[in-house]
Write a structure and sequence with these properties.
- It is a single chain.
- The protein is mostly helical.
- It has a domain of 95 residues.
- Helices cover 58% and strands 0% of the residues.
- It is elongated, with a radius of gyration of 22 Å.
Length: 143
């Protein structure tokens, strides 16, 4: 399982440096690991678990990881979230994880998501050499 944000980044984001003790840090580490599970599952579902993550996607994954962890447990030293705040943040995070799973948000560097316009042109065998090339290419893609 991956984690997309460090405990130090989480601590800076939520401004909890002033009252941080060892048990609080361990809890943050544990929650970040736990909160990475849905993200990992979405990445695995689209075959993106081992690709190079694009910078924009990395920032999104970090936000999702932080929000999932903070929704589960508000550190007593950070700003308290109301139930409606937690619900809104959770819905945002879930919608982004689902969009990754549907391929709408592409996380791999250099790749495009399902909403990216694409067009394909048919290959035409004008002669025997091109026909052989088309057959060879097809064999390479399907084997």
């Amino acid at each position: 399982m991956s984690r997309y944000v460090t405990a130090d980044e989480y601590i800076r984001i939520f401004g909890i440096q002033n009252c941080l003790d060892a048990s609080t840090r361990i809890r943050i580490e544990t929650l970040l690991n736990f909160a990475a599970g849905p993200i990992d599952a979405a990445l695995n579902s689209v075959g993106a678990a081992d690709c190079t993550i694009s910078p924009a996607a990395r920032a999104t994954l970090q936000m999702i990881n932080c929000i999932y962890a903070a929704v589960v447990w508000n550190c007593p030293c950070s700003e308290e979230w109301s139930d409606s705040d937690k619900q809104r943040y959770l819905e945002w995070a879930q919608s982004h994880v689902q969009a990754i799973g549907r391929g709408e948000i592409e996380v791999c560097e250099g790749a495009t998501g399902t909403n990216y316009p694409a067009v394909a042109m048919p290959q035409i065998a004008w002669n025997d050499a091109i026909a052989a090339e088309i057959i060879y290419g097809y064999d390479q893609r399907t084997s």
